[in-house]
Design a protein that fits this description.
The protein is mostly helical and about 900 residues long. Among the domains are: about 90 residues, no CATH class; about 190 residues, no CATH class; about 210 residues, Serine Threonine Protein Phosphatase 5, Tetratricopeptide repeat (Alpha Horseshoe); about 110 residues. Helix 3 crosses helix 5. The two termini are about 70 Å apart.
Length: about 900
């Protein structure tokens, strides 16, 4: 084969040079050899070297002198049409012998063209035949390929053989193209066709060499595979031939087609259902010339019939180069997906080790060709946009995520649905990965849509993206559990992506109050908290691309969502368990230092938390956004210690560097200054009244609405609009309650005692001040916060009385209507701790149903829902607690 390739390549080169030569003659106005019987070359020499005299001797030896002379004459501008010597011809004129025109046109190049045409015509016809066989193999379910797919306990490598139909189709198309280019290129002497033909033939030769090397290297592996195949095939015959119609039909079709008997020989049928049911006789295929079953001696005497395995082996040996080339092609495709995942894992490692720019640089070159590079690159940019909250960053992240979705779309299956009825039509591994990446892109794009656009149409589009994403995740989740799912080498990454999507949806939706959750379930969503947690836990602990995303979502849930929107307890143990492997792997990772600080803060270890947050700031200087997260927590840590100036310092940093909630940062700056003694100097010469008055000017919207905490801060700051404003009594402690800060200090009695002193001083100041329109509201606020401190100190009866004082003043409260429902929630949580279940349910239902349109209502409703879920109410209230 290699020798034929080399010979054909030489012929192509000669024909190509002939084509170039004739083309050059034509450009010079000289007829080609085909038209002049070979004299064109002499005319070309005369044109190049000048004058007939210089080549007369050569012309005298030519069989085509008259035509050559005429050609020379045309080159020199003469017009002799007779073909004989013209004026100025060489004196040694002569008369050539008569030669037939066909003989003149025929020569070496003509012979090459004929051979090229015949040889490539055969290739063209062979390619057409192989293409037809490939289509037949793909359509015919009764072929040997279908049998291999149904063998139980067969080696998983055999599933690659099911692609032989595609192999034959690809091979047939390749041979048809080669034959066509060879035939047409030889006849027409087309430079383009001949060059393309030469390149393809050269590539085939290179593939042969590579195939030979691969065969030498992997021969032992192939022998082992064939041994496994033989064992499985013989077991299949002995167990099912004659009993299972499908297996019997497949074997009969195979033996009729290949003219063979059994896998190795007729002895494979001994002990099979057919052998037992036909009086120890063998199928008719084992007996040539017979249409009936035969006995042992007849089968042994049939020397012309061999087993199907030798026939298959001969077929493979005859087409080794093509099979190896296609196998290498399949391997390259699989390696491409694996290489993409490996490189993305490496980029995430860089990201988690604080090498943010290097991570993006590694991903950037392949964002237009790899769905995973595009997705991870866009995800990192979206994380950056979420933290900076800059419009340009959000817009850039949105465009990048849209491009990533388009890349994923190119790899998706064109027809709808993940799988058809037949196993052969199910999605490939690449297509499955494309589905999960596409769903993730849609989910993240919807989040950016809510941040970027504020009109109703954009919200509707975002909602549709969320639902489409969920439906894809849901269908994928069902599909990967079915037997039709192909588990490729990158299956763990696929399962990780699905676990992240389904887990995130279930966990997030489980936090919603029952009324909203019922509406969402009617729309097709589900909110099973335990199931979502288990999926995310599996994803976080596995070594897959989404491990980091699953872990971050769980850490946010354990340290923020359950703490701020729940009962204020959090799940520190789970958070610490989840953090340990990541801290070992990324000891200086800013993200994990931040969450480690958060867990210490929840445990009440404020000094340890401060040290970890400061380490998080020192760990990297590239992305200041991580610093802002640490600044926020440091601000609260110093608040718990009542270090008002230090807390002010971090609030000031946030107001200057972060765009997330400037109104909130300005409010906190003013609040900390108001906590200082009146005669104490203010940092930077700022005055709290001026700062409070600036708060409304920094109002912004997220998803078309102002954040609840920002609206709350703006409403509280309105007091300072008056020329002689009434000061807020404890604005820092009031905001601290909104972030469940009193639960943070519950394990530190000295911190609780400090807060109680601050509240007592504020209460004394209120009593000493003249009565004003805010007096009742301020006193109720003091009672609520004192009740929390008393609860932390274990004085439950006194805490209950403080909460009751707030509830009893409901009709007197003029502005802070949020105080009563929150007092009821705290009362309910107090009853839960005391085991007073019925009373807890009563006050929680009252807080849930009796109050509307008050500040921070959503937060209060989330907390009521969390408290009721904790109680696991009985039948009457089960709908409220069941997720």
């Amino acid at each position: 084969m290699g020798l034929l390739v080399l010979i054909e390549s030489g012929c192509v080169v000669l024909l190509y040079l002939q084509s170039v030569f004739n083309s050059h003659l034509k450009n010079r106005g000289i007829q080609s050899d085909r038209a002049t019987g070979g004299s064109g070359r002499w005319a070309y020499l005369a044109a190049v070297f000048g004058g007939q005299q210089d080549v007369a001797l050569l012309l005298s030896r030519s069989r085509s002198a008259p035509t050559a002379t005429a050609s020379i004459s045309r080159v020199k501008g003469q017009t002799s049409l007779s073909g004989g010597p013209s004026v100025g011809a060489h004196p040694l004129g002569f008369l050539p012998r008569k030669v037939p025109q066909s003989e003149a046109n025929m020569g070496c190049f003509g012979f090459l063209k004929v051979m090229m045409f015949i040889f490539n015509g055969v290739i063209f016809l062979a390619g057409g035949a192989i293409l037809a066989v490939g289509i037949w193999v793909k359509v015919d379910s009764g072929s040997i390929l279908g049998f291999l797919g149904k063998i139980e306990n067969a080696p998983p490598e055999l599933r690659q053989v099911l692609n032989v139909g595609y192999l034959l189709i690809a091979l047939g198309v390749l041979l048809v193209v080669i034959g066509f280019l060879g035939c047409c290129g030889a006849v027409r002497e087309s430079k383009c066709m001949l060059m393309l033909f030469f390149i393809i033939v050269l590539l085939v030769f290179i593939a042969e060499v590579a195939g030979a090397v691969v065969i030498l290297v992997f021969r032992p592996l192939a022998d082992e595979l064939f041994q496994k195949l033989g064992t499985a095939a013989v077991q299949n015959i002995k167990a099912d031939y004659g009993a299972n119609p499908d297996i019997t039909g497949l074997w009969n079709t195979t033996m009729d087609t290949l003219k063979c008997c059994g896998f190795y020989n007729s002895s494979d049928f001994v002990g099979s259902p057919y052998y037992r049911n036909h009086d120890m006789r063998f199928p008719p295929q084992c007996c040539p010339g017979s249409s009936y079953s035969c006995n042992q001696s007849e089968a042994d005497n049939a020397t012309t019939i061999t087993g199907c395995f030798p026939k298959i082996l001969h077929l493979i040996d005859s087409n080794t180069v093509v099979i190896v080339a296609v196998a290498l092609g399949i391997g390259v495709l699989e390696m491409t997906l694996k290489e993409c995942l490996d490189e993305c894992m490496e980029a995430l490692d860089l990201f988690l080790n604080n090498h943010f720019d290097e991570s993006l640089q590694m991903l950037r070159p392949r964002v237009n060709e790899s769905m995973y590079h595009a997705l991870i690159y866009a995800t990192i940019l979206e994380m950056q946009a979420m933290m900076t909250f800059q419009h340009d960053d959000i817009s850039n992240a949105g465009n990048t995520m849209k491009s990533a979705q388009e890349v994923c779309q190119r790899f998706r299956r064109k027809s709808p649905g993940l799988a058809n009825k037949s196993e052969g039509d199910s999605l490939t591994e690449v297509q499955l990965h494309a589905e999960v990446c596409y769903a993730e892109c849609q989910l993240q794009r919807s989040a950016l849509t809510f941040l970027q656009d504020e009109n109703m149409v954009s919200f509707i589009k975002g909602g549709i993206k969320v639902r489409n994403s969920y439906l894809i995740y849901k269908e994928l989740h069902s599909f990967v559990k079915s037997h039709n799912c192909h588990k490729g080498p990158s299956h763990v990454h696929l399962v990780g992506g699905i676990s992240f999507g389904i887990g995130a949806f279930n966990l997030t939706l489980s936090l919603f109050p029952p009324r909203i959750l019922r509406v969402l379930e009617f729309a097709g969503f589900s909110g099973d908290k335990e199931y979502g947690l288990s999926l995310l836990q599996d994803g976080a602990t596995g070594m897959n691309l989404r491990s980091m995303l699953c872990a971050l979502l769980l850490l946010c849930y354990y340290t923020f969502l359950t703490f701020i929107l729940g009962t204020g307890e959090g799940d520190v143990a789970e958070a610490e368990k989840l953090l340990k492997p990541f801290q070992r792997r990324y000891p200086r990772g800013a993200i994990f230092l931040f969450f480690a600080g958060r867990t210490e803060e929840i445990k009440g270890n404020i000094d340890e938390a401060v040290a970890l947050f400061e380490d998080g700031c020192k760990a990297q200087q590239t992305w200041k956004q991580f610093h802002h997260m640490c600044y926020w927590e440091l601000m609260w840590c110093f608040t718990y210690k009542r270090a008002w100036k230090m807390a002010y310092f971090y609030a000031d940093l946030l107001s200057k560097e972060s765009r997330w909630s400037k109104a909130m940062y300005m409010y906190m700056k003013a609040a900390y200054l108001s906590m200082l003694p009146k005669d104490e100097a203010r940092p930077f010469g700022e005055e709290e009244v001026d700062l409070f008055r600036q708060v409304p000017t920094f109002k912004q919207k997220i998803a078309g609405k102002s954040p609840p905490t920002e609206k709350f801060a703006i409403r509280k700051a309105r007091r300072y609009k008056a020329s002689c404003p009434v000061s807020l009594p404890v604005p820092v402690l009031e905001m601290m309650y909104m972030w469940n800060g009193f639960s943070m200090i519950s394990k530190r009695p000295e911190l609780t005692e400090g807060m109680m002193q601050t509240l007592t001083e504020a209460e004394r100041t209120l009593l000493e001040s003249p009565v004003n329109e805010y007096a009742v509201d301020d006193r109720c606020l003091i009672h609520l916060l004192k009740g929390l401190c008393l609860k932390n100190q274990g004085l439950l009866q006194d805490a209950e009385e403080s909460f009751y004082r707030v509830c009893s003043s409901e009709k007197k409260i003029r502005f802070d209507h949020y105080l009563v429902p929150n007092a009821l929630v705290e009362l309910g949580l107090l009853y839960i701790d005391q085991g007073r279940r019925a009373e807890a349910i009563k006050v929680l239902h009252k807080a849930k149903q009796s109050y509307k349109d008050y500040s921070m209502e959503s937060r209060t409703q989330f907390r009521v829902h969390a408290a009721l879920a904790k109680l696991k109410a009985e039948t009457g209230e089960e709908d409220d607690t069941h997720l």
